[in-house]
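Researcher: Please translate sequence to structure tokens.
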Amino acid sequence: MRAATALHVHPTNAEQARAWDGDEGAFWAANAEAFDRAVAGYHDKVLGAAAIERGDRVLDIGCGTGQISRDAARAARDGEALGVDLSGEMIAVAHRKAAEQGVANVRFQRSDVQIHPFQAASFDVAISRTGTMFFGDPAAAFANIGRALRPGGRLVLLVWQGPEANEWIRELIGALAVGRDLPVPPAGAPGPFAQADPQSAAAVLAAAGFAHVEHEGLEEPMWFGSDIAEAHRFVLGQLGWMLGDLDDDRRDQALENLRRTIAAHNTGDGVWYQSAAWLIRATRP
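Model: Translation complete:
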């Protein structure tokens, strides 16, 4: 159930809060296992880069339904993990899954990381799996995260490379566009590819006080469904908004285009598209 209390966010994050604490977050919450499976190829690499020790205190930024938070807590068995997200429904799922799995040293909080009053130097490591690309003011957000880390604390982020390196977004958006030139967000605007440029991402982190910023390119197949029908439903749950301004003929064409690309990527062992991400490491001096 969606949390009843009001969510206090910075004005630059108001639009993201409406999405993630609204219908978009509700869809992610209802399909938590599918989203975790989609990016499963990256999961262990994020945790491995974080090098979590048994006594660590871990902050999971944009934790969603909490898979990374729970596994971080398991690694920090004498420490703890805190997952923070804008979505009340995803946080509710995260709480439920932690209870079901008996992970007692993890907490979840519905909050805006950009302005949340974390205790200074209270975490050893901050991690995020595709959760940091949506800040309205990235410099302020990462400065706040930096203050929450102890000196020598580690930051590990997984962010998407650009659309040109990600077959899934090119194919799926292209199928539903039906010849339209869709607006391209300004460089650095909140969205899946806001941290796709290594130089600008490194500059933001450096300005926020981080040092030793490193990018490692990763490529993994992404799962979208066990079969064509499941993938079709999963994709439309995320991108169905693209059909809203189409007439009946173009809508039918978009759906047929989508069916074709999904069928072309159906391996018989699931529907898979190629993806590419950056694994970013940095430290707080």
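Researcher: Any highlights?
Model: The mean pLDDT is 94.
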